[in-house]
Design goal:
The chain contains 4 helices and 11 strands, in the order αββββαββββαβββα. It has 221 residues and is of the alpha+beta class. A 6-stranded antiparallel beta sheet has the order 6-7-8-5-9-11. A 3-stranded antiparallel beta sheet has the order 1-2-3. Strands 4-10 form a two-stranded parallel sheet. Strand 2 and strand 3 form a beta hairpin. The longest helix is centred in the first third of the chain and has 14 residues.
Length: 221
């Protein structure tokens, strides 16, 4: 099931649930503090970045907080956690394309591995576009993010090298990006330090990219 469909189901479940929740995408996380005495010990500060309340800050009290806010997680940093692991990054070019190809499984989620690298295929909703994650290889330590400037033509060329003896003739690119991912894992998944384990209840948790980053290959296969 593709990601867009999963998100639609989450939104539908939230809207039809007892709380009738509708997400507000115009709010950003500012910081949090954790106490232990109150019924709602976590104080979370957020800021409105769009709409009539733009610029206004608000404090929310909670029993528990889950940070699912990506690899640059503000929640992770607020509880003093850090990502540790391999420093060398791997680059991937990703694009949603409308294309002609003789590859027989283009409408199937699959992984392609060859001597020239790897491709991950994710069919998009609607039956026309498909997403290609194209392996661009390891990034040199002194690259200084130059790989992110890789033109889409180079990503398409690389895709054809990997998929050979098949080929893909891209007619239109709806969206594209280049990103680097290092292999890292957080030291803890909550706000309780090692020496305090067993002495208090964790109140703040992190999940997803907030607690780990890795190549697109293990993420999708």
């Amino acid at each position: 099931m593709n990601q867009a469909r999963v998100l639609d189901y989450f939104l539908e479940a939230a809207a039809n649930g007892p709380a009738k929740i509708e997400p507000n995408y115009g709010i950003e996380f500012v910081g949090l503090e954790v106490g232990q005495d109150a019924e709602y010990p976590v104080s979370v500060t957020v800021r409105y970045v769009a709409g009539e309340r733009e610029g206004e800050e608000r404090t929310i009290r909670a029993k528990y907080v889950f940070g699912c806010d990506g690899a640059s997680s503000g929640v992770r940093k607020a509880i003093g956690r850090k990502l540790e692991g391999k420093g060398a990054n791997h680059a991937w070019g990703v694009m949603d394309v409308l294309a002609n190809t003789d590859f027989p499984d283009i409408r199937t989620k699959c992984a392609i591995n060859s001597r020239n690298g790897s491709i991950l295929l994710i069919p998009r909703e609607g039956g026309l576009l498909f997403r290609m994650y194209v392996d661009l290889g390891e990034v040199a330590a002194d690259d200084n993010r130059k790989v992110r400037q890789t033109p889409v033509e180079e990503i398409i060329k690389r895709a054809n090298q990997i998929i050979n003896p098949y080929s893909v003739d891209v007619k239109s690119v709806a969206w594209s990006s280049v990103y680097e991912v290092g292999h890292r894992l957080t030291d803890h998944f909550d706000d309780v330090d090692t020496e305090d384990r067993g002495t208090r209840v964790p109140r703040v948790f992190i999940a997803g990219d907030a607690c780990h980053t890795h190549s697109a290959k293990p993420a999708r296969v």
